[in-house]
Each structure stands twice: as C-alpha cells, then as structure tokens.
Amino acid sequence: MVASSSSLKLQDLIQEIREAKTQAQEREVIQKECAHIRASFRDGDPLHRHRQLAKLLYVHLLGYPAHFGQMECLKLIASPRFTDKRVGYLGAMLLLDERQDAHLLITNSIKNDLSQGIQAVQGLALCTLSATGSAEMCRDLATEVEKLLLQPSAYVRKKAVLTAVHMIRKVPELSDIFLPPCAQLLHDDHHGILLGTTTLITELCERSPAALKHFRKMVPQLVHILRTLVTTGYSKEHSISGVSDPFLQVQILRLLRILGRNHEESSETMNDLLAQVATNTDTSRNAGNAVLFETVLTIMDIRSAAGLRVLAVNILGRFLLNTDRNIRYVALTSLLRLVQSDHSAVQRHRPTVVECLWEPDGSLSRRALELSLALVNSSNVQAMTQELQGFLESCPPDLQANCASGILLAAERFAPTKRWHIDTTLRVLTTAGTHVRDDAVANLTQLIGGAQELHAYSVRRLYSALAEDISQQPLVQVATWCIGEYGDLLLEGSCEETEPLQVEEEEVLALLERVLQSHMSLPATRGYALTALVKLSTRLRGDNNRIRQVVSIYRSCLDVELQQRAVEYNTLFRKYDHMRAAILEKIPLVERGGSQVDEEAKESKETAQLSEAAPVPTEPQASKLLDLLDLLDGPSGDAQHPPPLDPTPGGALIHLLNLPCAPPPPAPIPNLKVFEREGLQLDLSFVRPPGTPTLLLITVTATNTSGGDVTHFICQAAVPKSFQLQLQAPSGDTVPAQGGLPMTQLLRILNPKKAPLRLKLRLTYNHFGQSVQEIFEVNNLPVEAWQ
C-alpha cells in the first residue's frame, strides 16, 4: 500500500512526462514510476492493479519496455469486475501477441466471458480475440464465436462477424463452420453487420472453391441490397457526401466481382444493377468516385455486356478530366489494364491520355507514357509518334529511356514505310541517343542496309546530323558506319529526296577525325570511325595518305581493340594494297529470318553430321599429350596436313594479314530459366567474349504470357565480393501482356579468380494491381559460365 500511495495518478504522470524538458528527464520520471508499478505488482494490490497497468500501458505507448505487465493482464482478465476486465483486455491487445507464450493462457478466460450474457464483456473478449488470436486460439474458440453470430444483440453480432473474418484469415479450414450463418446475416438491417458479413463472405470465397459455389446462389440477395442502397434517399445515419453508405456499396461490389468472375449466370444477374449504379452515382464528391471506380472494376472482371464495358471505359475517361490528381492516376492505371482487352474503347480517350503526358506530377506522366505507348497501333502510329517525340524533347531525364525505347519499338512494329522508320529512329537518336536500348544501333544499320533505295538519303541525313552534334554516341556510331559503307553516294551530290548538299572529301575526313579525337567518343565509337576511314580509302577518288597517317597514329593507342584494328588496317595498306578494294567491299547484311539464316543453319547441321561420322581416336592419354607438344613445337612427319585455306573473304583476310588463326568458337552455354510466376518468366542467357575469358555477359530476358502488363519491373542482382558486377540499363520497365515484346537487361560480371558463380536476384514489379517483391538465389548456373 505504501508503493501505491507514493506513486502518481495517470493524469499526473502524463502531465509530468509532458513537462520534461529533456529526454533524460523523461526517462528519469518513467524509470521512477516503473519502479513504483513493479513494487505494486509484487505486493499484489488488487484494488489498484488496473490503475497501475493503465499507467504501464501509457509508458508502453511511449516506446519504453513494459513486458513485466503481461501476467497482470491475465489477472485482470480473470477478475469478475468490469473495470478490471476492460484494462486487462486492453493490456492483452497491446502487450501480447502470437510470439508470447502467455497469450495462450487467456484462452479459457475468453471462452468464459463469451459464454456470459453481458454484452460489454463479450465485446471486449471478441475484440481481443480478433486482434491477438493465434491459430490455436481460433480453433478452440470457433464454435463459441459461431453461436454469437446469431445473438439478438446487434452489438455482439457485429463484433462476432469481425472475429470470424480474423479466424478465416488465420485458419482457412474453419470455412465450413461459418457458411450457414452468413445467409441469415445477409437479411439483417444493421449496416455494420451487413458490412462485416460481406467482408466475411469475400474471405470465404477467396479461400474456398466450395464456398464460392455456395454463395453464387446469393447473388440476387446481394443485388437487392445494393439496389436498395442506390435508390434510397438521404439518410442522416449512413449517407456520406450524398452517397448512401459508400463503404457498404464498395464492399458489395467487390464481392460481386468475385462471384461473377468466369460465371455467365451470375454476371447476367448483376448487369442491370451495375448499369444503374454507373449512371446514378453522384461524382461530385470522393465518396461517389470510390463507388464508381469499384463499379468499373467489377464490370471489367465479370462477363459483362459489351455496352456495359464501353460505359466503364467512358467513366474512366471522365476521371481523366477530374482536377484531383489521385483520381486521374487511378484512371490511367485502370485504362492501362483494359487496353489489351478493350483496345478500341480506350482509343477514344487517346487525346486526353496524351494531354496527361505534360502533367507536372512525375507519377502521372509516367503512367500516361505507359498508356500512350500501349495505344500505338498501325492506324495511329504516325500521329502518336509525333506526340511522343514532342514529349521526349522536354520530358524529365528519368522518363527519357522509357520514352525513347517505346518509340523505337512502336516504329519497328508499325512503321508504314522504311523511310518513315529511318526518320523516326534518327530523330530519337538525335534527341535522346544516350538513353536508347543497346540494340538500337544494330537495328538501324540493318534497316538502312536492307533499304537500297534509301542509301543515299540515309547517308546524307546522318552526315548532316553528325556534323551538328557528336555527343550522342549511338547516333555517331550509326552515322560513321553509314558514311563508311556509302560514302561514295554522299559525295555524288544527287539525291532527289533531300536538299542539295555539296560535300568535299576533306570535310568528310575531317569530321571522322573529329570523332576520333573527341573526348566524348567511346572506344566502340572510335572503332566505328577508324573502320569508316579505312573503307573510305576505296570509295574516295583522292589521295589516301591522310587516311594512312591517321591509321598509323592509332597503332600505339592504349585501347587494345583500337590498337589491333589499326595494326591490321596498316598491314592491309602496306602488304596487301592490291586486294584492299575487294576486302573492303560493302558488307551484305543478313535479313532477319531470311534465306541466309536458313543456309547457315543447314551448314551447321551438315557440319555436325560430319563430326558425328568422323572416327574417334582411342589413343592413350600420354600419346595425346605428345601430339599436343608436337603441335606446339612444329609439324612432324606423321602429322596430318592442314586443311586447305577457307576461300571465304574472312578466312582470306586472316591469312593475308599474317594473323594467328582464331581458335574454334566455344560451345554455346545453355540458357537457364530462374523464375516463373503468374505468367511472368525470367530467363538467363550467357556469353563469354573470347578475348576476355574472365568476363561473363548475362542477358536477363523477362516475358509475360498473362493477361495483364507487368509494370514498374526492376531487376537487381548481387554477387560475392570476389566478383565485380555491372548492371546495364534495362530496355524498359514494362513487360507487355500476352507474349508481347520481352524486356531485357545486361549484366557484366568479372570473375578474375574463376570461382564458382552464385547470383542473388531481387525482382520488384506491379502485376494485376498488386505490388510484388521476390528475392531468390541462383545456384545452378552452368559450369561453362565461370570455369
């Protein structure tokens, strides 16, 4: 009793803590009071126990340890007085959870209180059970809660329904116990009970196919409840901003969406109601917009009529005109989900979507960009590309990569003519060349090479763009390649499709030298420029001394690749000048899926058959080693004669330049599938460059066969400390649905010790409106990838 008399009251404790000027003073007050509370608990003072526990709970809310009050909660719950039970149950909800073994000790007390007829005590027990009940407690008390579902008191029924929702989430196999009471609860007039029952039925249907089949019979009852809510006038108790109980309407719509999914009869029953809700709901306030948005989602998920789906898309189109940014974002997200299934209906709102590109809010403009790219098709590709190119010129830096890649993909899929395709790609490279995908250079060179009638036009356009700006590296690479291949057409000065352009040989050479000397040029870009200079030696009519001097300078370049090219080209000038014109002819480009690919596949197949037919030697291991030594020391008399030289230009060039013969290419490393979930699949392909055996290039390819786009896709990787990892920029952050264009990302891994490779990946993305994060480790990488 002395401890109780010397301790503070709860109000005084709160006041003293608030008056503390420093954290040290606060800790001193709390430590002193906790000592009094401990002393009171030890003395076993039953009259002041609930007061001491109330003070301890306030201390717990401030973040200080209060675990020593757990057993006092159990004592207060077992007390017959309501004032003790109230504080005891509150303490149990705050201090106990499933990780504490003590929470199981209150099971018997809760069971006794549930069986009492006192509503307030039953409400306390149900609240505690729904907040802290573990799976064991739910199994033990499920029958008690089931009895309370049909109690006369609406207060108890409402809390019992919410407790049943918690039990289903914890123990889904308890579904059969709560199926029968739900049908009777749906006839209740209390909105709180209807809301809880609808939530309970939703949980049951999501976890049990049998429950889903059972509750589909109640669709007419749910339709009647929702129609009553829509047609009922203003109610002071339930109306919010002029909408009758929007919380109950939203929950019923969510349940109807589950019941009508892939079920023709249920969808037919609710079609008229959904049309009524969509046309009669007031959208001047947020409550009406929430109901309308749920109505749209329900229409799109069930087997609704075509006219109803068009109405839903039009509602989302009206959302785009709303002044609230959150509503516009929701509309853009929903239209992005619908663009695959209702493309023509979404197309009607294309002008409004394009206007959203210039929103100052970055999240809105990003979502509008994704939707705009999804709306591009063969009929509107020119107009949409023009709008997107205008946006690309002024968009934030974090959106330039997605916008540039999207325009290039759209042009590749829907280009009306090759010239338009070339012009579009050149404009993107000029505006945001540093943000395009890695394959943009190869695709454009192949496009130009395959369009013979546009060679003169392309080389002039590229030369003009290169003369204006040499900072965009992909543009510089394509331009130098094109000048090297078609430089003779550039100097002719005759092209009807462009303005007359008079170019002198010295100007072309000076421009390429400027690219070689620029500090902005990458090593790969300098390689393009050096090769272009050498090729111009056969296409220009003037003296080649200037070109030879430039090539000679780079024989001592620090970059090994550039140095090797310069040495080879210099050898070509000095020793094999008579064959230079034949060797530096225009490269015939391979058409995608063309006959040359088929011929190469046929030749590789024939080579494989010949290798299988060749006899396998059966010499001992020692003699094989001697043969290897003989090969290193020099040919012996018994050695086989080398095969005749390859007559192909590539093989002739190797022997003409006195370069060592390249070893046979290594066997391809098999691809590896590392992830698959809900239609999203992740594959890894491996390449080890022959010149850098410690370098491994891994291409991560994400494909999506589901019905919804995978957005905001981010792939992150980690390797052990003995490795060096570099992640290249991905081709985009959206993986289109239904097997659209895959998203790729390149990983460069340096393994100097050739240690076994382990890879840890983390994927984050949005799919069907859900945010997903997956972390997993890849330990089954092919041995060829690291040995």
From TrEMBL:
It comes from Phocoena sinus (Vaquita). This is AP-1 complex subunit gamma. Keywords: Coiled coil, Cytoplasmic vesicle, Golgi apparatus, Membrane, Protein transport, Transport. It is found in: Cytoplasmic vesicle membrane; Endomembrane system; Golgi apparatus. Belongs to the adaptor complexes large subunit family. It is a peripheral membrane protein. Pfam families: Adaptin_N (PF01602), Alpha_adaptinC2 (PF02883). Residues 595-618 are annotated as: Disordered. InterPro entries: Adaptor_Complx_Large_Subunit, AP1_complex_gsu, ARM-like, ARM-type_fold, Clathrin/coatomer_adapt-like_N, Clathrin_a/b/g-adaptin_app_Ig, Clathrin_app_Ig-like_sf, GAE_dom. SUPFAM superfamilies: ARM repeat, Clathrin adaptor appendage domain. GO terms for biological process: intracellular protein transport; vesicle-mediated transport.
